[in-house]
Specification:
This protein has 222 residues and is mainly α. It has 7 helices and 2 strands; from the N terminus they run αβααβαααα. This is DUF1845 domain-containing protein.
Amino acid sequence: MSETASQPKSAQRRAISRPIFERTFSINSEQAIRVIRNSYHRLMVSLYAIDVILRIIGREETVDEIESLVSQMIAECAEQLQQEKIRLEKLKADNGITETPTYTHPREFVAKIASPQIAQFVELIRLLDQLMIVMDTLWLCQVISNKHCIAARLEWQQRLQRLANKIVTMERHAHQAAYEQGHGEEVRLARQESGLLDEPARLSEDEDSMVDETNSDKAGAQ
């Protein structure tokens, strides 16, 4: 018997070929880098898993509803970021500041755009980075205090991470619903075929990361 033939059926399932864009960006601020490290990959996986699971249990209309909801949540966060960026840019102009800082350890971010919602979240990360640059400029020029800057950095970073966590929670609920409706094995095999974990990732790691980042920022301020 050949090695292939002896493998279990689930191991022989063909991986799905999905369309993606790969876009490379330079990310400067530590806050945007942390969002990429802690939230981006998990968000991308969760959005794809939601689509896989809901189509299996015959709720394609729900996929559209969730996509619309996710897009709305990201758009609202983007609007808040943009408004704060405009406010700080005005403060910068009012103080006659024209300089922009460079960063000691910028990162190259290769974004794999597997859905329109992922594209939206990537733009959200880039907008966060732009906001942090303006904020850091004002801090370096002594327009805003060290205490205010640390608190604002953390607030905006965690705002994006909480948004990503909400979407991960949607995946967990969809996964649980599929099992409750008797589609457990079908979902498990489809997740394997799509290169996903059999079970959705837990949120505790992200929550612990945000606590660690809070402690790190506070320590850095001392």
